[in-house]
């Protein structure tokens, strides 16, 4: 039985301000942008609102950043939605974040699919609500053939946990005789990560003025350019992303190498 071809991806609607992305050579546009969506609670408290209102306001920010990534040519966005350390928060906030992660996917899945976005999930299954896993897996299934941009939702994710899980699986395969320990390399470790085909992070963004990586994609971000945004996450949109990409484009990425530049 012949299936009908998928419709061509739609372009996201322009930003309401009419702003357009900067014109940059493609080699100066980061391929993979990792985002720590920080400051939701502080944004809400500053307005006399509960912390959960800040998380709700951050949904539009994430969607607009993905739209801006598509417009400027970023092919991978990874969003830190819920960390392995977030279980330490109040039971009320954890319940909200679990339900919110599930409902965001349900609400935005059609839009992301129409833009040609492939949704992926990185993170641990234990403790995660079954309904959240169901929505993550359904989003993965539905968008698996899309290739405009990949959005990796990092839910119950931690960089150290990811590396520890990879080390455990490597040890298991060594013990079973499926892997020679003398041949374990960085590429071997990469194959055991949550998303082994995910390219290294080029640009690492964190909102709300905090200047730390907070255990997010620590393997993938070994040579990432770090940009710390003063805006709390609900105030971030595609224009903020574009400014960060411009900052990235101005930086000299040497990956450990150095070249003398005589003065004069």
In short:
With 264 residues, this protein is an alpha/beta fold. It has helices at 40-45, 51-72, 91-114, 130-143, 159-175, 186-191, 238-250; strands at 32-36, 76-83, 117-122, 149-157, 203-206, 225-228.
Descriptors:
single chain; about 260 residues; alpha/beta
What does this structure look like?
- The chain is of the alpha/beta class.
- Helix content is 39%, strand content 14%.
- It has helices spanning 40-45, 51-72, 91-114, 130-143, 159-175, 186-191, 238-250, and strands spanning 32-36, 76-83, 117-122, 149-157, 203-206, 225-228.
- It has a 6-stranded parallel sheet, sandwiched between helices.
- Helix 4 (130-143) links the parallel strand 3 and strand 4 (149-157).
- The model has no long low-confidence stretch (mean pLDDT 93).
Secondary-structure topology with pairs:
Layout: E1 32-36, H1 40-45, H2 51-72, E2 76-83, H3 91-114, E3 117-122, H4 130-143, E4 149-157, H5 159-175, H6 186-191, E5 203-206, E6 225-228, H7 238-250
Parallel strand pairs: 1-2, 1-5, 2-4, 3-4, 5-6
Order of helices and strands: EHHEHEHEHHEEH
Number of helices: 7
Beta strands, count: 6
Strand order of the largest sheet: 3-4-2-1-5-6
Radius of gyration: 19 Å
Distance between the termini: 71 Å
Class inferred from helices and paired strands: alpha/beta
Largest sheet: 6 strands, parallel
> If you average the pLDDT, what whole number results?
93
């Amino acid at each position: 039985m012949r299936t009908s071809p998928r419709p061509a991806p739609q372009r996201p609607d322009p930003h309401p301000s009419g702003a357009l992305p900067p014109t940059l050579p493609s080699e100066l546009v980061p391929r993979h942008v990792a985002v720590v969506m920080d400051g939701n609670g502080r944004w809400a408290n500053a307005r006399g609102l509960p912390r959960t209102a800040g998380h709700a306001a951050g949904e539009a920010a994430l969607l607009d950043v993905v739209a801006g990534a598509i417009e400027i040519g970023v092919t991978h966005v990874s969003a830190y939605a819920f960390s392995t350390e977030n279980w330490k928060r109040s039971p009320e906030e954890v319940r909200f974040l679990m339900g919110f992660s599930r409902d965001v996917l349900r609400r935005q899945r059609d839009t992301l699919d129409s833009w040609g976005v492939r949704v992926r999930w990185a993170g641990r299954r234990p403790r995660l609500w079954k309904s959240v896993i169901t929505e993550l897996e359904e989003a993965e299934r539905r968008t698996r053939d899309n290739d405009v941009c990949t959005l990796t939702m990092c839910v119950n994710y931690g960089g150290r946990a990811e590396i520890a899980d990879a080390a455990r699986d490597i040890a298991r395969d060594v013990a079973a005789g499926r892997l020679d320990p003398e041949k374990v390399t960085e590429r071997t470790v990469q194959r055991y990560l949550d998303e082994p085909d995910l390219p290294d992070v080029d640009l690492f963004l964190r909102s709300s003025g905090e200047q730390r990586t907070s255990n997010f994609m620590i393997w993938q971000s070994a040579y990432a350019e770090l940009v710390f945004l003063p805006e709390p996450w609900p105030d971030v949109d595609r224009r903020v992303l574009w400014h960060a990409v411009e900052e990235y484009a101005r930086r000299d990425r040497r990956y450990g190498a150095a070249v003398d530049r005589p003065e004069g």
